[in-house]
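Subject: Sanity check before I submit

Could someone independently write out the structure tokens for this chain? I want to compare against mine line by line before I put it in a report. The sequence has 327 residues.
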Amino acid sequence: MAAEREALVQVRNLKKYFPINRGVIQRHVGDVKAVDDISFDILRGETLGMVGESGCGKTTAGRTIIRLYEATSGSVLVNDVDISKLRGGELRQMRRQMQMIFQDPYASLNPRMTVGSIIAEPLEVHRVAFGKEKLERVQELLRLVGLNPYFANRYPHEFSGGQRQRIGIARALALNPDLIVCDEPISSLDVSIQAQVVNLMEELQQQMGLTYLFIAHDLSMVRHISDRMAVMYLGKVVELTDRDEIYLNPLHPYTQALMSAVPVPDPVIEEERKRIILEGDLPSPAHPPVGCNFNTRCPVAMEQCFEAEPEYREVKPGHWVACFRVP
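---
Independent answer below. Compare away.
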């Protein structure tokens, strides 16, 4: 099925380094390699899940893809247009195709603006709708995300966390985008609300033909919503394949350790399962290890892993991995 779809987003050799400056004259002494040479496609109409530990670069990757951060190098093509080279009006026009749902619904909504003004802001900025047409569009978006359209005159503090995230989703949908980057949209919500928000996102995807980059920590939720999954470690994508394949047959040692941590709702299987406990801490992205980024914590590292960086390659159709151990 994935092979039949065209790529909406093509990420090639994308890097995002944050400079480290020191001294009175702010001399450049190094870089934090938040995103370090990643390449993948996001297919039209699919949900690509992106997982990994805190600090591995997931959020930075998402923000760089839609150019909230300027890339250090590399390219991002959306609908075959390289957005890294766009400026001014061309970039402004392209931004209508890309939106983001932020992690914290309490911090991402302006407390001084009404809900109606928050949702209408993209319409005003891009001169899409005014007056009565704008009001009708705001009410339509509120209905779409399961909120009362008459809530448009209320302020964010009058809503719960789940309702606020629905408002954030409505704002992201205002311009009918093709791509939505979802930056851990359910991590700050109660467990009882998380399923409701994820189900809403799936319904909207079917109705509007949306494409999601879904960044999250909850591996079971990512498996539920995603078509394919990308695993990041220290700024690099170490494995990418179909969601079921990555759960049933993970090839990279880091992915195997991650998947061993996912609880199974069967006490017999859970009792027999072997947990892979990684030793040590995540290295600093300012000083990544020589060779494979994972060599300091890898339980099966060999001499080659400390000397050269493994190639990110397609080991079988649709299954990409960066590991010397994988034939």
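---
OP: Matches mine. For the report I'm noting this point. The mean pLDDT is 88.
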